[in-house]
Structures are given as structure tokens and as C-alpha cells.
């Protein structure tokens, strides 16, 4: 940046570069002026050489950090001690369709100063955080839920008074921040979070995903002000499209930057699915499984895993034991909650002609293995096209480009051209997703009755590394029309919140691909669903529906082959029958009834209902600000059910000061690890002293020598 700015400055200075150069290159120059310029050039060269030595020493010292010695700097650019280290422990218990996780984050201060640690980290996109404790030495402090602004105020007060304090905020539904102040030198403080999530069930298989890192997100928009950016713990600064960019952009480093004892996680998973489990697998890690009756204990083969990719665990029920329907019940604070799962037994291969629009992300965050996964996913999608189908391919980075002007027939020539186009795609540039969505949702085929008879499907292949998710969701909801949007998550740490919610608003499904060896199975499932009949016009009838407070989701979308219908309701006892009906592609009716009196005991259903209710309230803010009534409702639900939301935070604070008032407090922003398979261009290091002053000095010296040589040349060859 500094070097870039020097050019125009020197060319426009009143008595600077451009006018002096004109004197030197002119045919006439007085001997007195020539001697004066030579003397000035010589003295400047001597002064710059004196300046170069300390600059070079500083650049050399700060530019060669050893492995495992990640450092931060203060506002003056001076290097502080080693960063606060992080270790994580996951303990997960699965009961039926709900997974309950105890997450422990330990922050160890390896420096000689009192520290504040700040760590931005991902959680599952459907996580309900409902508990927090802080452990400092032998003291265990239970956290309490507060309105976010009140939690910030109390945190700042405890931090200033030297008391140990921890706060956890939600930045996005799948992105959170832990802040912990007054960590003594050489000591470890632990924050424990409790959260639950719904287990995904699809095509006869359960799946649980534990994210451990995140892909740096693209921040569109213009800077909010013209003032110089102040470092605030993130690599990005707020923009008009992402006003909290500095809060969701943790530094991203390589594993060697943090040392062998940092950013490691231990994971233990207990599966009690309520039915016999036949097999357990993981596409992301090597795991061991131990059966104890109907309970299975699962853990990675290595004791601690590197936090550079999501952990994915899948398990399948024994043959013949796949659930066709299940219902769970819970009573909490005098109210009844029911959760129902129904898997429609829809068979057949009736196929309708389709119009498929494939959208592929070719931005810089997709460089490396991600773009290879994306190309392979798109090529596999092209193989599913029949002669009756039409298609197009759109790629986007900083700009959006379409292969064809409109959807074209899936002829041999068009498919061959598309394959060549896809194989030549590379990843670079920004992630301007909005224009790609506009192009995909607005693009139509040849019109007429033939076009209207086609099933229109959009396949969106991306890592979702964007910071303006809400605006994109609103665009999908408003521009979808008759299309269906299917998202394919790419990479070892995709933004699953974007994948799931974009598919929900797009009335489609989402699929995640973790590595190249796992591409075929999930894609075959996805494209198989897209070809298979769907169940539409779904109606759910609970007994005594008028007595129910609310059921979520309130509107069941289309179901594709192998997908379950899941709905949770508050205010109904487990009595009577639940009736579910829908329309098959041939126009015939499908119906199934479920006896609620056979409901099994469930755990955490009230939190699952509250999370669904909160999500429905937050949906109103997609195309603008959420209104105050909805905001207050979200706060009440968060406080009532002890859940973290966008407007509520957990806070745990010690009552007794521990840091002496004369001791300074330094702040460390603990980095996340570069997702496995990503290229080094996605690294985001903090601003440390760099070699730019040295390079500037060398450039100026070069200019002085050039001027001196030119003058001497003029003297010898007048």
C-alpha cells in the first residue's frame, strides 16, 4: 500500500520527482545546479544507508518467527509475548434425534503479562447454547444469561477492576466469540459451554457434524468511514454490507504457527439412537467404535486431533430397523413439548424433464482442494442430465459469468462444451454471491408451455465464505419464484449456516462434501433425490391443533426421497394421533398416521422449540432490521430458556479482584487454523512489523542513485 502511494505522490509534488526529472532530461542545465543536485543526492544516499540498518534488523527479527511461536504486537508494532494457547474438549451424548455437547475451551497464558484472550469459533449451525461455567484454579463460577448490552457492561467493569471474567456472544447462528479477561501469567482458565443440536437423518443414515475451524469470509461493501482502520482483533474492518466484519474475522494461521500443544481437540461421542446401530463411519477422521448393547462409544483414533477441519460422524440403524416414524415427548416447567419424525415411504422413479442451473464458486477462498471438489461435483451433475433436460453453468468470483446466454438442451455437443469449460475453471478473486444468485434465479429457458412443464432446479456449489448471509437469504426468498435451490457445501470447514438456510429458503436440500474421496456418495444421493419424485402440498394435523401454542417449522417444505418430516410443537400432551398427508408427483394423495401415545421420552425439546421460534422471529429481519417487538420476544425466549441468541450473552465473573491495579492487561486474539486443503492465500496474519519500510528505503536509494548516474552521464556526455 505504501509503495503504491509513493508513485502518484512523487509525480505530483510541486518541486519533486516529475519537475526535477524534467530538468535532468532537458538539453540545458547549469553547472551550478548540476553540482547542487549531485551533492543533495549524495547526502540523501548516506542518510538512507544509515536508516536501512535498523529497518533491516527489525524486518529480519519480526519476519522469521519460529514454528510454534505465534506472536501478537501492540499498537506501536512492538512484539508481545507468545499468544494465549487454546485447547478444546468435546463430550457429546446423542439421545434419539438430539445431541447434547459439553465443550471445554482452555486458555493458557504462556507469557509474563496478564492477558485477555479473545477467540472466535464455530458451532453447529443449529446449536442451542444453554449453559456456561468458568473454572479458574479451584474456583468454578456458573455463568448467567444476560441481555447482550448488559453483559458487555458487566464484562468491561470486571475487566477494569482486575476480576476474572468470561463472556460468550453469538455473532452468527454458527459463529461465536469467547472473551476471557485477567488470565494470570502461566495459568490456565477454562470456559465450559453446553449446547444441543438436532441430529440430521437422511436416507436411512444419521449424521452429526462438529465444526472446529472456519474459512475466512469475504466481506463485500465499502468501508463504513474514511478514517484509518484501527486494529480490533480481526483482519477485516466493518463495511456497509457487513458492519460487524471486525467481529467475525479471526486471524487464520498454519498449524506450525501455534505449536504442538495448541489448537488440539479431544472428542468423545456416545450414541444412544433408541434402536440398534449397525455401523459407524467418518469421512473426516479415522475413528474407533465400541458397542455396549444399543449404545456406541466413538472417538478419533488419535487422542487429540488438529482443529483444522470439521469432525463428521455417521451411523446407520440395523437393517430393517430404519425409522418410518418416531415421536418424542418432554414436559418442562408445566408445559408439554412433542417432536415428530415421519419418513414418507415414497417409491418409484417417475421422472419429469428438468431445467438445471449449476452455479459454481470460483473465488479465492475456494483455491486448492475446494475448487477440485467443486469441479468434480459439477461434472457429476452434468452426468445426470437426459436429452429432455435443459441446463446452464454459471461461475462467480468478483464477477459473474454464464457459459450460455440461457438454458440450452442437454445435447452431446453442449455437454462436451460444458465439461471443457468446467475443467478449466480456477479459483481467484472475491465472493460476490449476490449477482450470481440474481443470474441463476432470473435465468429462464426457451419459454412457453415446454418451459413451464419443466422442474426448475438450481445447484449452488460453494464454501459459503461470506459475511452478508442475511442479505443473501432475503434475495433467495424474494427471487426464488418456481425454482428450487440445492446447496453443496465444499471444503473441510464450509459455512453450514449458509448452506442449510439457503436451501431452506430455496425449498431445496443441502449437501456437504468433506474430501475428494467422499464426493461420489453424497452427490449420488443429492442428484438421485433431484431426479426422484417429491412429496408436495404437505399438511400436518395435530390433535387439538387449536390448543397448541405453535408448531415449527410452521410450513413444511417439499420432501425429497429419503428425507424426513420433522416438526416440534408446544402445548400438546402425548394423546391422540398425528396425521400427515401430501401429494405425489402423479397427483395421488399420500397419508400416514402416528400414535402419539407411543411417544418416547425426549430431552431438550423445549430448547429445540425455542430455537425454532427464535429463528422464525429473526427471519423477519432478512430484508431489513428486525422490529423492536420481535427483538424483545427473542430476548424473553433467550432468558426464559437460558439460550444464547443474537441479543443475549452468557457471562461468568469472579467477585474478587485478582490482577493488581498496577499490572497492565494485554489482549490476545487467539487465531483459528487454516482449514485443511485450503491454500496459503487464505491465511490471515495480524499486522506485525514487516519489511515494507526496508523496501521503501531501497526504492528511494535506487531513485537517488538513478538521479546521480543521470547527472554524471550529462556531465560526461553534455
From TrEMBL:
Chain ranges passing through the membrane: 691-712
Any one Pfam family match given in the protein's UniProt record, by short name: VIT
UniProt keyword annotations, A-Z: Membrane, Transmembrane, Transmembrane helix
Gene3D superfamilies: von Willebrand factor, type A domain
Domain VIT residue range list: 69-197
Residues annotated as domain VWFA: 355-530
Residue segments, region Disordered: 1-24
PANTHER family documented for this protein: VON WILLEBRAND FACTOR A DOMAIN-CONTAINING PROTEIN 5A (PTHR45737)
The name this protein goes by in its record: Ca-activated chloride channel family protein
Organism whose genome encodes this protein: Marinobacter salarius
Amino acid at each position: 500500500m505504501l509503495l503504491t502511494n509513493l508513485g502518484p505522490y512523487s509525480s505530483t509534488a510541486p518541486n519533486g520527482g516529475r519537475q526535477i526529472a524534467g530538468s535532468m532530461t532537458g538539453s540545458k542545465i547549469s553547472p551550478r545546479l548540476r553540482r547542487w543536485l549531485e551533492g543533495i543526492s549524495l547526502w540523501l544516499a548516506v542518510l538512507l544507508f544509515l536508516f536501512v540498518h535498523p529497518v533491516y534488523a527489525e524486518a529480519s527479527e519480526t519476519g522469521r518467527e519460529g514454528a510454534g511461536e505465534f506472536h501478537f504486537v501492540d499498537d506501536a508494532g512492538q512484539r508481545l509475548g507468545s499468544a494465549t494457547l487454546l485447547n478444546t474438549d468435546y463430550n457429546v451424548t446423542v439421545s434419539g434425534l438430539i445431541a447434547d455437547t459439553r465443550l471445554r475451551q482452555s486458555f493458557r497464558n504462556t507469557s509474563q503479562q496478564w492477558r485477555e484472550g479473545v477467540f472466535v469459533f464455530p458451532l453447529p449451525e443449529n446449536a442451542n447454547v444453554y449453559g456456561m461455567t468458568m473454572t479458574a484454579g479451584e474456583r468454578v463460577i456458573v455463568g448467567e444469561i444476560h441481555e447482550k448490552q448488559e453483559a458487555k457492561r458487566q464484562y468491561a467493569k470486571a475487566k477494569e477492576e482486575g476480576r476474572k471474567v468470561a463472556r460468550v456472544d453469538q455473532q452468527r447462528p454458527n459463529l461465536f466469540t469467547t472473551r476471557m479477561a485477567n488470565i494470570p501469567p502461566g495459568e490456565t482458565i477454562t470456559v465450559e459451554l453446553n449446547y444441543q443440536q438436532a441430529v440430521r437423518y437422511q436416507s436411512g443414515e444419521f449424521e452429526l457434524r462438529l465444526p472446529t475451524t472456519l474459512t475466512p469470509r469475504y466481506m463485500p461493501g465499502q468501508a463504513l468511514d474514511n478514517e484509518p482502520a484501527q486494529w480490533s482483533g480481526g483482519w477485516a474492518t466493518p463495511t456497509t454490507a457487513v458492519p460487524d466484519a471486525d467481529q467475525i474475522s479471526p486471524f487464520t494461521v498454519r498449524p506450525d504457527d501455534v505449536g504442538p500443544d495448541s489448537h488440539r481437540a479431544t472428542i468423545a461421542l456416545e450414541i444412544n439412537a433408541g434402536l440398534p446401530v449397525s455401523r459407524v463411519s467418518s469421512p473426516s477422521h479415522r475413528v474407533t467404535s465400541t458397542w455396549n448393547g444399543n449404545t456406541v462409544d466413538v472417538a478419533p483414533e488419535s487422542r487429540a486431533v488438529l482443529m483444522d477441519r470439521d469432525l463428521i460422524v455417521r451411523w446407520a440403524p440395523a437393517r430393517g430397523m430404519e425409522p418410518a416414524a418416531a415421536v418424542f415427548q418432554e414436559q418442562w416447567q408445566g408445559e408439554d413439548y412433542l417432536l415428530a419424525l415421519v419418513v414418507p415411504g415414497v417409491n418409484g422413479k417417475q421422472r419429469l424433464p428438468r431445467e438445471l442451473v449449476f452455479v459454481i464458486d470460483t473465488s479465492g477462498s475456494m483455491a486448492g482442494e475446494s475448487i477440485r471438489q467443486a469441479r468434480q461435483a459439477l461434472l457429476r451433475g452434468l452426468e445426470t442430465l437426459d436429452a429432455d433436460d435443459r441446463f446452464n453453468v454459471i461461475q462467480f468470483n468478483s464477477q459473474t459469468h454464464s457459459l450460455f446466454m440461457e438454458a440450452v438442451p442437454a445435447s452431446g455437443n453442449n455437454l462436451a462444451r460444458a465439461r471443457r469449460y468446467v475443467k478449466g475453471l480456477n479459483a481467484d478473486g472475491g465472493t460476490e454471491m449476490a449477482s450470481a444468485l440474481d443470474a441463476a434465479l432470473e435465468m429462464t429457458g426457451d419459454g412457453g408451455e415446454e418451459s413451464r412443464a419443466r422442474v426448475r432446479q438450481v445447484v449452488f456449489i460453494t464454501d459459503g465464505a461470506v459475511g452478508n448471509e442475511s442479505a443473501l437469504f432475503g434475495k433467495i426468498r424474494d427471487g426464488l419464484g418456481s425454482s428450487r435451490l440445492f446447496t453443496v457445501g465444499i471444503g473441510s470447514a464450509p459455512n453450514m449456516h449458509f448452506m442449510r438456510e439457503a436451501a431452506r429458503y430455496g425449498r431445496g436440500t443441502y449437501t456437504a462434501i468433506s474430501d475428494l474421496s467422499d464426493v461420489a456418495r453424497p452427490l449420488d444421493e443429492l442428484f438421485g433425490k433431484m431426479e426422484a419424485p417429491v412429496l408436495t402440498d404437505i399438511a400436518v394435523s395435530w390433535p387439538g391443533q387449536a390448543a397448541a401454542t405453535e408448531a415449527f417449522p410452521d410450513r413444511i417444505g417439499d420432501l425429497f426421497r429419503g428425507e424426513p418430516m420433522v416438526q416440534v410443537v408446544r402445548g400438546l400432551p402425548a394423546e391422540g394421533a398425528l396425521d400427515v398427508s401430501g401429494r405425489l408427483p402423479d397427483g395421488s394423495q399420500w397419508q400416514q398416521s402416528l400414535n402419539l401415545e407411543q411417544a418416547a421420552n425426549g430431552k431438550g425439546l423445549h430448547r429445540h422449540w425455542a430455537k425454532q421460534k427464535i429463528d422464525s422471529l429473526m427471519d423477519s429481519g432478512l430484508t431489513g432490521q428486525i422490529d423492536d417487538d420481535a427483538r424483545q420476544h427473542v430476548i424473553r425466549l433467550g432468558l426464559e430458556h437460558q439460550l444464547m441468541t443474537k441479543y443475549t450473552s452468557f457471562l461468568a465473573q469472579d467477585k474478587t479482584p485478582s490482577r493488581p491495579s498496577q499490572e497492565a492487561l494485554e489482549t490476545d486474539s487467539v487465531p483459528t487454523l487454516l482449514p485443511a486443503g485450503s491454500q496459503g492465500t487464505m491465511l490471515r496474519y495480524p499486522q506485525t512489523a514487516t519489511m515494507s519500510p526496508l523496501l521503501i528505503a531501497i526504492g528511494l536509494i535506487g531513485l537517488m542513485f538513478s538521479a546521480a548516474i543521470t547527472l554524471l552521464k550529462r556531465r560526461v556526455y553534455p
